[in-house]
Amino acid sequence: IWSPSNQRNSEVIFPIPNFPEGGLGNCFLAHALPADYVSQNGIALTKWGGFLVPWDFYDTYDPKDKRRNALLATYWNGKKMVDRRTEYTGKPGAVPMKYQENPSTTGQWDASEYVINRYAEVILARAEALNEIYGPTQEAKDLVHEIRERAFDNYKGSKYEKEINDITDKDAFRAHLLKERGWEFCWEGMRRPDLIRHGELISNAIARGKLMAEPKHILYAIPQSVIYENPNLKYLFPNLFLFCICMNLTACSEKNSGGDNLQSGDEIISFEPDLNTLIRNPASGWTLYDLSLIHI
Fold first, then answer.
1. What gap in Å lies between CA 38 and CA 71, rounded to an integer?
2. Cα 3 from Cα 29, distance rounded (Å)
3. What angle do CA 127, 128, 134 make, to 5 degrees?
4. d(Cα 6, Cα 117) in Å, to the nearest integer?
5. What is the pTM of this model?
6. Which residue spans within the chain are E strands per DSSP?
7. CB crowding 170-181: b at 16 or more within 10 Å, else e
8. What is the pLDDT of residues 122-140, one digit of tens each?
9. How far is CA 73 from the centre of its chain?
10. What is the pLDDT of residues 43-53, one digit of tens each?
11. 65 pLDDT higher than 80
């Protein structure tokens, strides 16, 4: 998938094409490599040293998981192998090198396709959906096996296969899928939406010392400049905004199918404009609202 010689890989669903020209290439490798990294292939590389994988996450990989090989814990600096964990004095963490050295470029403006989505995500998304509907069925487990089989040698009959087969609880399988997605899609832009979907973004941030994290941070703010340009763009609730281009939602006091009123302090979990419904999760439980009953 990641080799410069393996473009148009059949697993990749949605790539961003790149070209070895200024402003048109892939700069991931240049962003990742530390300043003292030296190519053992004699390639002159651009090294900005920004992207890292925290050790707390790196250590969740099984040592025999081949996916961890794309995260460098050691590298050659021209004189010796540097151990990022014990010798490096800069920011702690392994170096993500899914995008590999390319003899044709310096790692800046590389021609390697930038992967947005690949078939492995479809497989794990289906496993997650099946688990939510039916629990950890054999079909859902087989989908996970399909991903893990290439990550571990001699997978069939191994403890790694048994680890999945032994899961019988929906919650436990859901928790494993979140971990599996982290291992599979490290530095592929999946983690934030995954943590939001599993309700763990804020708790995860707080556990990492981000004490200012709040539930509202699962959403991006509407830029003030955009609100100035379009005064009809309004925040309706602390955790939800709607694009009210043609109309303003002025009141939410109408009785709905949930049997109580929608209040401005309610936490909105999802909004489905095509279904004309929204769902909230107050302390009392889940409530489904029909927006056609709301005063507009």
1. 16
2. 12
3. 85
4. 16
5. 0.77
6. 12-16, 71-72, 74-76, 81-83, 95-96, 114-118, 233-237, 240-243, 268-272, 277-280, 287-290
7. eeebbebbbebb
8. 999 999 999 999 999 999 9
9. 22
10. 999 999 889 99
11. yes
